[in-house]
Amino acid sequence: MNKILVICGPTATGKTALAAQLAKELNGELISADSRQCYRGNDLETNKERPDVPIWLYDVVDPGEAFSVSHWVKLAREAIADIQKRGKLPIAVGGTGLYINALIHPLETIDIPPDKTLRDKKLTLSELQNMVSRGGMNDSDWNNPRRLIRKIEIGKFPERLSLKQRQSFHALIIGLTAPIPVLYKRIDAHLKERRNAGMKEQPINEHAIARKQLTWFKKQKNIQWFDCTSPTLLDDVLYLIRHVQKD
Predict the structure, then answer these.
(1) Contact at 8 Å (CB) between 97 and 105?
(2) What is the pLDDT confidence band of residue 136, given thresholds at 50, 70 and 90?
(3) Same domain, 224 and 183
(4) Order of strands, edge to edge, in the sheet holding 55-56?
(5) Where are the alpha helices (H) located in the chain, listed in sequence order?
């Protein structure tokens, strides 16, 4: 099973900086797991840091172009294969939990593409319901056009990848966090720096984004959490990694 390192957590916790330090210590390369940083442009708005180590999956799609978790996982798999082929450690870093989860725990439907023709038809709820059997769908899913469309798309591919056929990774997951008041101060300081550097005003509430990220990651299992403000953060994380490597 392929081994990778994951650095995750809410915005403004210094994930990329830590990942870059780890890449130098462990002969690694980074893979961005951030849904906004995949798009070209808006570097300040999406907080694209440019560390002095290789980082994959920045700027891989044009703004407005369709880009799903399936697209990201495909590119991440390719990046991991390239990094490992050269004897280096892949380090996925970012705050988009859905991307990270889909990479580590691949769904059997992850590679089933959307049906653009079906989606462009803008069918009514009743029309969609007539195209699919309800099966075990609960009331919420049965009355959700987006989920009905996805069920129709999946139904067109009866032979899906088995768990053995799906590429999976053995990941050590490091989570960075801080108390909410501390996190908000870090976010505000980050925003001020980016505005001073010329960032356009944006309506995104980064406090709310951080709260959502924390809620997502706290529900996930097997994350080793560290306080991002600890002066011994790098040493503590390296100790854990090397301890795990011995097992």
Answers:
(1) no
(2) confident
(3) yes
(4) 55-56, 28-32, 89-94, 2-8, 169-177, 223-227
(5) 15-26, 69-85, 97-104, 116-120, 125-129, 139-142, 145-155, 180-196, 206-219, 233-246
Can you tell me the distance from the alpha carbon of 197 to that of 184, in angstroms, rounded to the nearest whole number?
A: 20
The answer to whether the beta carbons of residues 54 and 29 sit under 8 Å apart is yes
CATH classification of the domain holding 178: 3.40.50.300
Q: Which domain holds residue 17?
A: 2-109+166-246
pTM for the predicted model, two decimal places: 0.80
Residue whose pair of structure tokens reads 């990046």 in the numeric block: 79
Cα 221 → chain centroid: 16
Backbone angles phi, psi at 101, to 5 degrees: -65, -40
At 164 the pLDDT is 44
Give the separation between CA 54 and CA 41, rounded to whole angstroms. Answer: 18
Dihedral of the alpha carbons of 106, 109, 112, 118, in degrees to the nearest 10: -140
- 84 & 182 share domain: yes
User: What's the mean per-residue pLDDT of the chain?
Assistant: 89
Q: Is residue 161 part of a domain?
A: no
Residue 68 forms part of a structural domain: yes
**55 and 135 fall within a common domain:** no
Q: Are 47 and 11 in contact, with CB atoms under 8 Å apart?
A: yes
Q: What are phi and psi of 7, to 5 degrees?
A: -115, 115
Count of domains forming the chain: 2
Percent of the chain residues past pLDDT 70, beyond the cut: 93
> Which phi and psi (to 5°) does residue 35 adopt?
-65, -25
Name the region of 68 (left: φ>0; alpha: ψ -120 to 50; beta: rest). beta
